[in-house]
Amino acid sequence: MSMTKEEERNVKQQEAFRADFEKRTGETVTGLELVCLEATPENLKSLGLEYPTAQFCLWGLLVFCESKALYFFAHAHDFTIMGFKPTNSDDLSSKEQMVCLSQDPSQLTVSRPAHKTWLGKLLAPNNVLLVTTGTGAFCTLKTMKKAALLLERLSDYAVIS
């Protein structure tokens, strides 16, 4: 089965990202997962991240490494591509951001949100994970698929609770 031009372009982009990431960090990339990271301003700051102007989350990649290190990488993007300009700002672009969430799996805890009622369980989104780093920073990750699938993948990179 042959790939479409878009699939070929995506593969090339992933290969280029992996090569650049490995050059920057010295880490061998074993996997990528698109996620949306949300945190309070204090927790975001303690992770060394910041929200782009007029945004309340960071879309980026969880980067799984052979050494069991786990990174979050948010690519710089241009707001004009998405068709809007942040109000009261001449800054139209965000900056690239990267943080190592953990070098040691015992220093990262990941869990699913606990719901106390059956209605809470029924209505809760099934794509959210709660993350606590070794430094005590807390954030949520929203995935494009069921959280259980990402949780399983994270079992080698974090303590699952």
Distance between the termini: 41 Å
Largest sheet: 8 strands, mixed
Q: Note the total helix count.
A: 4
- Radius of gyration from CA coordinates: 17 Å
β-sheet strand percentage:
25-35%
- Class derived from helix and strand content: alpha+beta
**Uncertain segments of ≥5 residues (pLDDT<50)?**
78-89
Provide the helix percentage. Answer: 25-40%
How is this structure best described in words?
By secondary structure, the chain is an alpha+beta fold. It is globular. A hairpin with a 4-residue loop joins strand 2 and strand 3. The protein starts with a helix and ends with a strand. It has an eight-stranded mixed β-sheet.
SSE layout and pairing:
Elements: H1 5-25, E1 29-38, H2 41-47, E2 58-65, E3 70-74, E4 97-102, E5 109-111, H3 118-123, E6 128-132, E7 138-143, H4 147-154, E8 159-160
Parallel strand pairs: 5-8
Antiparallel strand pairs: 1-2, 1-7, 2-3, 3-4, 5-6, 6-7
Give a brief description.
This protein has 161 residues and is of the alpha+beta class.
Which labels suit this protein?
161 residues; 28% strand; alpha+beta; eight-stranded mixed beta sheet
